[in-house]
């Protein structure tokens, strides 16, 4: 924005007083959004004049139209132009941790083998790995469905090791055939032609294709089939298990940190936790929570998703309403009522993203109200990744190398084995 103001100032000496109406292309979200500014009433100072923007930010322009200060009050962010700047420090362009990025490696002496596979997806081929236990087979089979975001088949997302490979490796060691797959844009799976307007329905369709592929494998012939879904993947697992086509094939569903509320309520809780960690004021946190509520109302209303109907800063954050609306179309408490097979609901007490009382509680109540076989396992010290946490977890803690909790792995394995007729 400083460059835009400087360019306009070069064309007009009174640029500091202009009302601007521009369109700006935002690379991270691949969207063009309106951007407007206007002088902020009497907010003229010796340094220049303050302007408000339609993106909930404020800028201070001097008489020549050069941006002196830019701030986002609700986020507690401020940047100031230093005319007599100190020498540039000797730093790397991109600060790097001394710790190498996580890479999946098969466990030493593994009692299973991995076969890399490609599955015909509904939009783009899906890359995955099939973990095949030692022995003649066939084996009970497990499809693992990961959460939101971009991560590979092993659960590695940049500097974060989510740990799903530990779950699937452990099950393979104990006689379960397993399929793990890349999310769109990770590993060997491309984004696909629907990348700019993709929602939960696309992710469900990808998982459905993977499920059909696993069912058709000779190593799984005639054996029980299970779904494990983590976070958003739990919603997908519920959607698949409740479909008529799943029939008697799926004989158990494991839900790890599953959503039980509308997305705006979950976002409001996450904003509160992260805002406190960042030292934001109660007013700043409330403003961000109000944005989450406004966004949900706009999506529910079905209004046109453009600058005339939607605040510009929300357009910048959500390129289309497709992803958000999908969670309204697939409420987990409604989906769980349609599942006829046994359900294992797992929740960590240190999870700041999903709540034991406000998410797991309603899911459990809905399942039991519908007469479903649903068992609840609560792990007080585990976070959203089912890793041990010292107190309330945080996003920063996700980057620390920690294993998936062995007690959780053992109890998960025991529940699956009891329904598959295997020794835990």
UniProtKB/TrEMBL annotation:
InterPro entries per record: AB_hydrolase_Est10, AB_hydrolase_fold, Hydrolase_4
Protein name: Serine aminopeptidase S33 domain-containing protein
Gene3D superfamilies per UniProt: alpha/beta hydrolase (3.40.50.1820)
One GO MF term: carboxylic ester hydrolase activity
Boundaries of every Serine aminopeptidase S33 domain copy: 154-384
Ranges annotated as spanning the membrane: none
Superkingdom to which the source organism belongs: Bacteria
